[in-house]
Amino acid sequence: MDPIRNPYAPGAGQRPPELAGRDEQLAAFDIVLERVARGRPERSLVLTGLRGVGKTVLLNALRSAAVRKGWGTGKLEARPDQSLRRPLSSALHQAVRELGHPEPAETAHVLGVIRSFAQREAGTDAKLRDKWSPGIDAPVVRGRADSGDVEIDLVELLTDVGGLAADVGRGVGVFIDEMQDLGPDDISALCAACHELSQNGLPVIVVGAGLPHLPAVLSASKSYSERLFSYQRIDRLSRDAADRALVAPAAEEDAQFTPDALAAMYDATRGYPYFIQAYGRSVWDLAPRTPITADDVAVAGPEAEVELAVGFFGSRYERATPAERDYLRAMADAASADEGGEDPVGSVATADVAAVLGKRPQSLSPARDSLLKKGLIYSGERGRIAFTVPHFGRYLRAQG
Q1: Residue 13 has pLDDT above 80, yes or no
Q2: What pLDDT score was predicted for residue 63?
Q3: What structural domains and CATH numbers belong to the chain?
Q4: How far apart, in Å, do the first and last CA atoms of the chain sit?
Q5: Can you list the positions of beta strands (E) in 245-396?
Q6: Other CB atoms closer than 10 Å to residue 312's CB: what's the count?
Q7: Is the pLDDT of residue 61 over 90?
Q8: pTM of the full predicted structure?
């Protein structure tokens, strides 16, 4: 098969040629956009799921849907070592520009509030070079979104942005990837701001994406967050959707898969979108001709596994310290007896991990906490942990 015409695209956040299995989420979001723009009450949205299920791809697709409706949009990726102020200011700056409000003075005022919110990050006594500005020409609006209390400031900021959007009969969408990495104060402020916006009927929504424990992070910050957001768990694809993710791009290049090949692909990928793209690329490159057969899948399997081992599993494993790697391997060993090939995250009790290592659970807290911060594991319930990457335990056990 011609590698130049290979349609499959494994990559972090890279949109696949066929966004299969997400029609329900896209259709539901179109309804949200229309309702918000008309002043109807609607909740902000949170997407959760493991690594490799396509959360970022779907987040970008939802943003594109908002852009097509004429909304102002901005996107940011949360980082555990960064305050929300600067990236959010940059995102809102873009959103306001996209709105295209007909009154320059109104736009300038809101941009000045955004600038005020951003510069408060440096503090009132900071030197001029430290007062970061997201390229906004409008003068700072003093006394608005600059109190230093991020909850007060964020409510004021999004209220002003929402008012600008309401003037033109459209909305503003703030899209936040890796939302679980926001700091506690920022999470609390964001929940409070969404609550205020909902009560006032302003056309601003937040669409966040994060790991499976994100709802617990939000709930720990504000008890009402369970009613504030609409939670959608993004999981692996059904067999039909996985087949479509392979068949539709191949058809565009005048190629086909046999039914046995599609069955073999699903057995190998378990329907995880990233795995589908990795296997699809390898199978395409190694198959001699169309239609692609189950034998072609078997031949390409080792190369696809190498791709996953290096680009998907290995890159994450390399981020761990020696002590953290010991903890990860112990998790894999503790999960192996119960995994049975069905549990992709290897959920285990922390006490079982300690037993494998022959240590007291308390002595392992630093390694566990560091892995949680790095996003390699998560805690869905008290006393239990799991990998954020599907089949990571299987990869670790294969390393020996």
Answers
A1: no
A2: 97
A3: 23-233 (3.40.50), 250-316 (no CATH), 321-399 (1.10.10.10)
A4: 35
A5: 348-349, 377-381, 384-387
A6: 22
A7: yes
A8: 0.90
